[in-house]
Each structure stands twice: as structure tokens, then as C-alpha cells.
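Deviation from plan, reported transparently: flavin-adenine dinucleotide complex.
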Amino acid sequence: MEKYDVVIIGAGLGGLLCGSILSREGYSVCVLDQNSRIGGSIQSFTRKGVIFNTGLNYTESLGEGEILNRYFKYFNILDKLKIKRMDTDSFERMSYAFDENEYPFAQGYNNFTESLSKYFPKEKNNLQKYVSDLQKVGDSFPLYNLDNNISEEASRPYLTIGAFDYLKSVTNDKKLQAILAGMNSLYGGEKHRTPLYVHALINNSFIKSSWRLPGGSSQLALAIAKTIEENGGKVLRKSKVVKLGGKNKQLEYAELNDGTRFFAKHIISNLHPAPTLNMVEPELAKKGHATRINELPNTIGMFTLYLRLKPETFPYLNYNHHYFNEYNSWTTKNAGKNWPGHYMLYTPPQTMDDKWAKGIIIITYMPYAEVAKWDNTFVEQRGNGYLEFKQKKAEQLIDLVSEKFPNIKSCIEEIYSSTPLTYRDYTGTPNGSAYGISKDFRDPLSTIISPKSRVKNLYFTGQNLNMHGILGVTINSIITCGSIIEPNYLLNKIRQY
Ligand SMILES: Cc1cc2nc3c(=O)[nH]c(=O)nc-3n(C[C@H](O)[C@H](O)[C@H](O)COP(=O)(O)OP(=O)(O)OC[C@H]3O[C@@H](n4cnc5c(N)ncnc54)[C@H](O)[C@@H]3O)c2cc1C
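Because the crystal trials were delayed, the predicted structure below was used instead.
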């Protein structure tokens, strides 16, 4: 019989990091993933020698002494990763139809303010206030600083302010409001729902410093899995969990689709809480809990294009290009109309010093309703109608990209694409939502998920707890493991890095 201290369902970033922490602390750990490749949204794949990322494009605050640098040192993975800093004067460029400027986001608070002030000289004071507010928000979350003098209470005010409303209060200039919200696709922001803290934590940590992973994002998953295996733990692929069972109101095992049972004292789910709770045997679950979680709205999904390029036709860009067809970054609600209307384009680095891009990745929002008619199909078996749909969408998106990059069509060798259905089937996230449960400033606590579920011995981790993204999920893994081992003991260890 397979028996462990901890079984973790899902080898996405959150599951792997929990496995790493707990195996290091002497727990016997087994991580189970449904796919043959681990990583979930940090997976990358190769087509004819070109590496593409399925999700993770760039990450943040990896500079010496910065927060993710410290966490990754604690995890003993920093020196195993190939990392490349993005352009310090423009890691992001915001561009708009009928506007020849590309508005840069620079790294470093002063640099950020100075760069945008060149385009908005009268807004310099407002921009200074903006970056100082971002810092204040970042400084109020204890695990974003590893500072034990900050109380949890310090962050409360930022949970109940809307990001869109906040930006309106920073400046009256509608164009600048749109530009400052330009990283919207990093969180699938909704005008009347997304809290300030989501916008601020992401912008703040990327402004501190922004980095890419040349050679693909999978290296992150592989490096963490290695630490688990070195500590004696297991990471099992092609192991799809379909049932969580037990007796006497205690969860005891995770069962695979072939009937194998993995018994454990603690079970951590890296999946979205809704499919997790749907797998729990009814007699173990608290009435109404699963229903409430199933009803929480999720962030929108993505349509992604992966373009394999002809050699030496398109330069490697050490920044992300965000394009909007109007001065409005809050496009999730209208994503089905006038599609695509907005996209983020980047060139995934293959090596540390690419001069030419071998591939381009273009991401835009896609509501699930667009693909709902293929709901009952699975990857590679969705039929010709779906392939035609994807081809039509690819052409529409490339047409929009051609407005900014007129030669792009002549650079393309081959086109691959994915829809929210692809993400649904590879990561298990409901309706292929990109970032999981959508946070809501009007009722923040209903959308922030506790790591301790209402089922005894079952814990949650991953992007659905407080924050998504690499830093958010890293911090959530500490929060989850802090529910199993003494949190201060764990934090004191991490603070040494
Ligand atoms: C298109 C896109 C772009 C992104 N870009 C960035 C970026 O540039 N920077 C950034 O910081 N963040 C980015 N993110 C967000 C970031 O990648 C995610 O927040 C993070 O990787 C989520 O990790 P996770 O551990 O919560 O779960 P996931 O990555 O969702 O992993 C869940 C895992 O569970 C497994 N699983 C599901 N069901 C089962 C089952 N029944 N049995 C066993 N295993 C199962 C899946 O196979 C998967 O491996 C992006 C996300 C997307 C979708």
C-alpha cells in the first residue's frame, strides 16, 4: 500500500513548492500529476527545436536581496535557473492604435516615473505618488517582505479598494489611467471587481525587477522536482486523481483513475478548489461548501498563438509588447465583442543572448462561451470545426498584430494555438480560467481561499488562495505549509536567506 505523510495533487508550481518544503522538513511526500509533463502553467514545450511557454513568460523581484530571490535561494533553485533581466528602461511597452508612441514601463521606481514623465510631464507628481502607493501596498503584506514586524492587518485596507477606482484617483488623464493599467492581462482585471492589491502587488514586484527564463519555463518545475527527489520524495507523472476518500470524517487517500490509492496523513490539493471538492466523497464534505466554491467566478481564459519563425526575420525583444485598440485596458468584459482588440506579444528567449527570435507568443483574452460547444471534447480530439475556429481566430489576431508589425506574416513558418479548453484540459482549471478564482474588492474574504479546507486533512495551495503568478504562488506555498508545520519556525528559516 502506498502510504506517505503528505500526498500532493498536482505538480504545478504550488504543489511542487509544497513538496519541496515538506520533504526538506523530513515528511515523506508524493506529488501526483495527471500529465506526462509537470509544471501546469509553468510548462514549456518544443516544436521543431523552438521552445514555447504555455503560461509563465516573465517573473519578478529576482535581483539580489529582492523577495523572490530570497525565496528561490531558500528553495535552493536560484543557481539552477537560467535567468535574464529584461530591458531596464522598458520591460513593458504599451501601444495603442492610432498612437505612434510606445509607452515604456522601466524597472526601478525613479526610472519608472522618469520614463513615463517624458510623455506626461504634467503628471510627474502623480506618477511619483503612484509608485509610492505601490510600494506602500507591497510593504503592507508581511510575506512580500519577510518582515516579522508587519501585522496582517496592515494590508486590509487594500483588499477593499478597486484597482480601477484607485487609478482614477491617481490622475484625471484617461490615457495615463489606461497605460498604468496596461499589465491587465497579467491578472485578467475587471473594472468593477479587481482589488487594488492584485494590481499593486504585481506592478510593484515587476517594477522592482523583471526577468525571463531563457530555455523555457519548464526548467523551474524540473529544478523544484529535483529538490523533492533529492529529499527522498516522489513526483509521479500520468497520475490523475479522481477521488478523495476516507472514513470517520477524515480524508485518508487520493485515488487515481486506475484505482490505485495513495494514503496520507495530509493531502494538499494544488488544483482549483472547485474540482478538488467535487472529488471528495460526499460523506466527508461539509454541506454547501462545494456549492459555494463552485459558484465563485473565475478569471477569464486566454487564446494563445505560438508562431515558429523563419530564421533571422524578427528580432528578439527583451520586453513585452501590449497592444490595445483604444485607451482602455479593462477589456475582459468585452473580450467577446470586437475580438481581439488587445494582445500581449513576446519573444520567448531560447538562449541567454538571442539576437533573433525563433518564436513569438501572442496572448489575448477569450471568454469560455466562444469554445463552450466543444465542452465535451478532449485535447487533439475536438474535430474539424474546432480546428477551423482556431484557424479563423489565429488569422484575426495576426491581422491585428500586423497593424503594429507590418512584416509579421512574412516571418511565420508555422502557427500553433491554444484556447481556454486547452488550459482546462492541461491544468484542470474550470473553464480554462487563466488565474483561477477572481478576487473581488466588494467582498474580499469570499474570494480569498483559506489553505485549510473544511474537509479534515485536506489543504489547498496554488494560485487560488490569495494571489496568482510566480511570486503569489510561492508565497501561498509558504502559507499552506505553515498550516502543517509551525509557521514561525518555517518563516525564521526562510528569513535567513
Ligand atoms: C497564459 C498564462 C500566462 C501567464 N504568465 C505569467 C507570467 O508571465 N508571470 C507570472 O508570474 N505568472 C504568469 N501566469 C500565472 C502563473 O503561471 C500561474 O499563476 C501559476 O503557474 C499557477 O500555478 P498553480 O500551482 O496554482 O497551478 P497550475 O499551474 O494550474 O497547476 C495545476 C497542476 O495540477 C495538475 N492537475 C490538475 N488536475 C489534476 C488531477 N485530477 N490529478 C492530478 N493532477 C492534476 C495539472 O496537470 C497541473 O500540473 C500565467 C498564466 C497563464 C495561464
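The pocket of flavin-adenine dinucleotide is lined by residues 9-15, 32-35, 40-42, 55-59, 240-241, 270-271, 302, 304, 363, 423, 427-429, 434-435, 462-463, 468-470, 473 (CB under 6 Å). We consider this an acceptable substitute for the interim report.
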